[in-house]
Amino acid sequence: MDGQSGHSSPPLSWRADGRKGAAIGRPAPRLEDERLLRGGGRYVSDLIATSGPLRVKVLRSPHAHARLLAVDATEARTLPGVAAVLTAGDLAGVGDLPCDWVAPGMDVVPLHPVLARDRIRYAGEPVAAVAAETAVAAEDALAAITVACEKLPPVADQEAATGEGAPRLHDAVPDNIAFRFRRAGGDVARAFAEADVVIRRRLTNNRVTAAPLEGRAVLSDFDAGTGRLTHHTSSQLPHAHARSLAECLGLPLHKLRLVAPDIGGGFGAKLGFYAEDVICALLSMRTGRPCAWAEGRGESFFATTHGRDQIQYAELAARRDGRITGLRTRIIADIGAYAMGMGPGVPAINTGTSTTGQYQIPNVETEVIGVYTNRTPTGPYRGAGHPEATFLIERMVDELARELACDPAEVRRVNFVRSSDMPHKLPTGFTLDSGDYAANMDAALALAGYAELRQWQARLRAEGRYPGVGLATFSEGSGAAPSIAMGAIGFRRAGHESARVVVHADGRATVFCGTQSTGQGHTTSLAQIAAGVFGIALDDVEVVEGDTQAVPFGTGTFNSRSITIGGSAVYEAARRVMDKVRKIAAWKLQRRTRDLIYENGTFRPVAHPGAVVAIAHSVRKVAQKVLPVVFRRRSGFELPAPQRDAGAVTFADVAREAHLGHDLPLGMAPGLDETCFFDPKDILFDYGAHVAVVEVDAGTGHVALLRHVVVDDCGRIINPLLADGQVHGGAAQGIGQALMEAVVHGSGGEPLVSSFSDYAMPHATDLPAFETGHTEIRTRMNPLGARGVGEGATIGATPAVVNAVLDALAPLGVTDIPLPMTPMRVWQAIKRARDEQNLERGDDA
Amino acid sequence: MPEVSMTVNGRAVRGAVEWRALLVDFLREGLGLTGTHVGCDTTQCGACIVHVNGLAVKSCTMLALQCEGAAVTTIEGLAPPGAPLHPMQAAFRECHALQCGYCTSGMVMMALDIVRRLGEPDEATIREELKGNICRCTGYHNIVRAIAAGARVMTAGYK
Q1: Of A782, A238, A835, A86, residue with least CA distance to A551
Q2: How far apart are CA A167 and CA A392, in angstroms?
Q3: Chain B closest-CA separation from residue A455 CA (Å)
């Protein structure tokens, strides 16, 4: 039959490789790419460049700690081109910046003003803002603002900050300690008392920055006539940020439309809610004109949250056979000058509950201490607390292997939580849902050719060279948590995600989802899920995200949750739509839904109906004959004769019928439009194994990363091309942290890094071609069977590379090199080790 | 304000610019060609690469006035609207060589410069040639693959 008659739009295409259900799991090139490749991206800065708004610039403190005495903007306000100036005195009635994740045990959340009020607590803290006709005029006006302040002694190190007599940042927090979060399980004291081997280490996890290539940017436009604010911002959390903005400004949410258009990378840095959003919105409300701010790269190094920065004291108890019996950790996390965004919860919950990694460690004690210092606030950075925990345990396990002169793979193997023991409740709280860690590590070892690598290493060592092989495994609680658990851990966000799936009258579909792509490719992956359910072509599905007007509910993108939670919401909503489609098709074919076959977009009755089917068919025919009679009596019109027994109806036929409503099953509401809130039952864990292969140049300290192998288990994969892309990019960032990235401050808290010339990030020459693989154990925590994929590679890469470098230098007796392992630090460690060896030889002589 | 004229993507353009205006500002704000991006302000990231008289140039490090009379090509000029993608653009799509897309135009413009000078370089050479470009999303893996694939198609096409 002709399913398209009377339609002007082109027929639905069946190009999904001609395979049924092929949309899910197919390495489809992305739908968004052609537009981006033609230069058609619409990033916030592009909207600014083409719309002529007032330009906003922010005056920032050069001091890390100071008493703010006066801000005088009298002259700045009179300068040509200046439309408005904001100082703290202009912010009456404006709320402070919120903390989204108040760690358990955090009694006080210090106020975090939009513009510094009476104290400055980090270099880069906003003090005033100007809106002017041009960026240059705004800069000139900043220079005309005079700030009187009295410098205070700063503290730029979390251990120093907790010391006796340390400068105090917040009056309400006398010891600079934001929280102490403790978790314990088992009998740790006994484990250590009875241990054959005890390993103790102090590890540092360096302060880094996400550095998405697009800095943050805001374009805010208030319409005084309607009282509506349209706010474009480079955000990973449009809905949460809309709520924060509305609270700060006292704006009703139905008058606020927050739009996150194309976003040029986020990696956690765009999860925080920042002062500049409030500043631009307020300036637009004051001036009646659109106001825009775009972060300069230099500015981003102190205006945007940093990541990591923990000092970790770890003690590991083990038996001589390699079994780990106890783990005691004390982690001192620098949360910077303010508790901002997710800042406190990242080390407390994500690090504090994850220190046991993939291992069955019965006796565990963890304390995470969050400390305020005079530095830029820290926040989530790809992995958000999990890389720190993984680094800790994977370093300790390698140290144990070294102590026992045992292969690091074997030490891991004997300690893995076994597949058969899952679900496994961790002593620190959460539950590992499912997985097979040994099989996963074996897959990585096989892909790497581990045995051959050790032979290669022995050959090179014999030549006096320094090759190293490093291993790391990880498991990451991802997808965040059920909403009820989010509340319990002080996380002021939902755990669910919403999706609305609409099928239009021509059989094409739009997916609205509360997630937010910052490059992950949701336009394609979420479309694949819906297209898979409907059996329609991928480009017949459009995905809408990042617009609080088009998508009323949403939680956002973080913790590798977009596919597991958002994708599951899309899947469930699409399934509900499909159920209705099937019912309409059954009505039109006068069959029960279960007696239909759906193939290539067409419903057909089963070929040979049994007796039951035939009876049901007849009953339906009778029911459908009654309807025209009733209708004629009531209205005097004839119903058109239904085209029953047509033999087949297409998806598009059903869509048209659902919209017209001329001939729907009795009592069915028209439309194909379903919304689902998917709230996970529990946290799920993605996991994986990395093998890094390096050679260290002992003369220069340079580390060459020769190979990097990743085998992760992200459960069911929606699009292998995109999943591997996440692994590549994630690994690159983890490698960057291990070898080169560091946000460095002077002892006075002054930032020493302010551009890509002094913040080293991996270039193409620093990285090998990645070797990736996947094991696939589907989780039962969501209907897709999908686990997180966005962060895992970052989590595993750092310890794998660090372990490889230390493995390379093991013959020299090098046991630790602080992160990042720059050539200078590696060279120094080699020199120290050689000096010690020479000294020993000298002593012997 | 002084005036500047140049040919951009085959079209003669003219505009008043500040003395200190950068080429990238003229392209983005003056001409609305926002496919060229600014990622760093310090000539490190390469997101702003365009071709000036056939050579890859970081448009954040060149004054608009320096381009008087020059022929400039931006990402928007590689394939006219409606026409198929340039082979290098197509290779980037096929190889999933872009994620957030912010560095992409600079990467593609640099890739074309690499192919123009070196034909079909090997992987190590491609990596070396990308020393002036930063991507934070892809780990370069698929960018390197795409440049090799695009180079193959392009050199085959020129025979």
Answers
A1: A238
A2: 29
A3: 26
Q: Is residue A550 within a helix (H) or strand (E), and if so which, with residue range?
A: none
Q: Which residues pair with A182 in a beta bridge?
A: A367
Kindly report each contact of residues A4-8 with a partner whose C-beta sits within 8 Å and lies 24 or more positions away, as own/partner.
A4/A652, A7/A506, A7/A652, A7/A656
Q: Homologous superfamily of B3-77 in CATH? A: Beta-grasp domain (3.10.20.30)
Are A33 and B98 an interchain contact pair (Cβ–Cβ within 8 Å)? yes
Facing B74 at nearest CB: one of A39, A296, A729: A39
Nearest to B142 among A41, A725, A763 (CB): A725
User: Looking at CA atoms only, how far is residue B101 from chain A in angstroms?
Assistant: 6
The structure's pTM equals: 0.95
ipTM over 0.90: yes
Which residue ranges form the domains of chain A, and what is each CATH number?
1-30+496-678 (3.30.365.10), 44-152+216-294 (3.90.1170.50), 401-478+682-844 (3.30.365.10)
Name the residue in chain B with its Cα closest to that of A266. B100
Each residue's pLDDT tens digit, A595-633: 999 999 999 998 766 666 667 667 667 767 777 788 888
Asked whether the beta carbons of residue A265 and residue B136 sit closer than 8 angstroms, the reply is yes
Return the axis-axis angle of helices A386-404 and A408-415, rounded to nearest 10°.
110
Contact between A722 and B95 under an 8 Å Cβ cutoff? The reply is: no
Averaged over A493-500, what is the pLDDT?
95
For residue A345, pLDDT beyond 60: yes
Chain A: residue whose CA lies nearest to B128: A765
Q: How many helices (H) and strands (E) does chain B have?
A: 5, 5
- Joined together, the tokens standing for residue A468 give 């190293």
Give yes or no for a contact between A121 and A267, defined as CB atoms under 8 angstroms apart: no
Q: Which fold has domain B87-158?
A: DNA polymerase; domain 1 (1.10.150)
In a mutational test of the A interface, the residue from B24, B73, B136, B147 whose CB has the highest number of chain A CBs within 10 Å is B136
Query: Min CA distance, B2 vs chain A (Å)?
Result: 17
In B, which residues are within 8 Å of A262 by CB distance? 100-101
Tokens of B142: 């698929």
> Which of the pair, A481 or A344, is modelled with greater confidence?
A344
Contact B41 A761 (CB under 8 A): no
* Residues B91, B153 contacting (CB under 8 angstroms): yes
Q: Judge: A41–B101 Cβ closer than 8 Å, yes or no.
A: yes
CB–CB of A45 and B37 under 8 A?
A: yes
Of the candidates B102, B123, B130, the beta carbon closest to that of A43 is on B102
Q: pLDDT tens, B57-103?
A: 999 999 999 999 999 999 999 999 999 999 999 999 999 999 999 99
Distance from CA of A439 to the nearest CA of B (A): 26
Among residues A57, A79, A77, A61, the alpha carbon closest in space to that of A69 is found at: A61
The two structure tokens encoding residue A603 = 């419903």
CB contact under 8 A, B140 and A732: yes
Which residues of chain B neighbour A214 with C-beta distances below 8 Å? 37, 39, 100, 102
Evaluate whether B64 touches B24 at the Cβ level (below 8 Å).
Answer: no
Cβ distance A764 to B130 less than 8 Å, yes or no, reads yes
Mark B136-155 as b/e (b = at least 16 C-beta within 10 Å): bbbbbbbbbbbbbbbbebbe
Inter-chain CB proximity A297 and B141 less than 8 Å:
no
Tokens coding A247: 């609270």
Residues of B in contact with A724 (CB under 8 A): 96
* Residue-level pLDDT at A142: 98
State the CB neighbour count (10 A cutoff) for residue B45.
Answer: 27
- Residue B69, Cβ neighbours under 10 Å: how many? 9
Q: Which amino acid is at A453?
A: L
Domain boundaries, chain B: 3-77, 87-158
Same fold, B3-77 and B87-158: no
Structure-token pair, residue A747? 């002892």
